Design the sequence.
């Protein structure tokens, strides 16, 4: 079984969720609309665990094909049981080709350290994209769950670990010493 993240063309999330529990070769799945104010989303995200691609599952259910799909190869994860609704944040990242492995390793270490410092992050997972199953410009997927949206917009965004250790990877105004002082993204991430 493979874990997949698919970006959906519309917000018909109920039909996608049903398709991910009804078909053969599917362990489970859920789809949810992007929250207002989300950045870079397509309308909804579909998480599926299956031995078939989300495109095949959608086609069998008569649903539009996902706009983008990645197969996940988990690096590390943490699980905290939550009752009731929750907020899930899924971030697809693209590290530039040729980035030194040590630099990629430091990014991964910083992301995986976040739950140790930011108490509102409950369950989380860092994965690389399985390029053999889904060749993609995306290289990593960083997922986090929160008990409510305040956990994301409050402690997470305002926490010193977030803005000193993680945001620096994405801030184009902070030059990397090991990459020279030229302007540009601090971490070799592609938009």
Sequence:
């Amino acid at each position: 079984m493979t874990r997949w993240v698919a970006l959906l063309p519309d917000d018909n999330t109920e039909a996608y969720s049903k398709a991910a529990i009804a078909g053969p070769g599917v362990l489970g799945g859920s789809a949810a609309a992007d929250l207002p104010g989300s950045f870079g989303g397509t309308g909804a995200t579909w998480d599926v665990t299956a031995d078939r691609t989300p495109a095949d599952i959608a086609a069998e259910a008569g649903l539009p094909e996902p706009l983008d799909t990645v197969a996940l190869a988990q690096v590390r994860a943490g699980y905290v049981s939550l009752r009731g609704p929750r907020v899930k944040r899924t971030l697809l990242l693209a590290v530039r080709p040729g980035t030194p492995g040590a630099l990629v390793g430091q990014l991964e270490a910083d992301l995986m350290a976040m739950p140790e410092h930011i108490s509102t992050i409950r369950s989380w997972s860092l994965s690389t994209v399985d390029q053999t199953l889904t060749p993609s410009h995306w290289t990593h997927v960083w997922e986090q769950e929160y008990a409510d949206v305040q956990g994301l917009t409050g402690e997470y965004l305002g926490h010193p670990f977030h803005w000193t250790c993680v945001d620096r990877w994405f801030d184009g105004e902070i030059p990397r010493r090991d990459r020279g002082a030229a302007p540009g993204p601090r971490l070799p991430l592609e938009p």
Remarks:
- The longest strand covers residues 68-78.
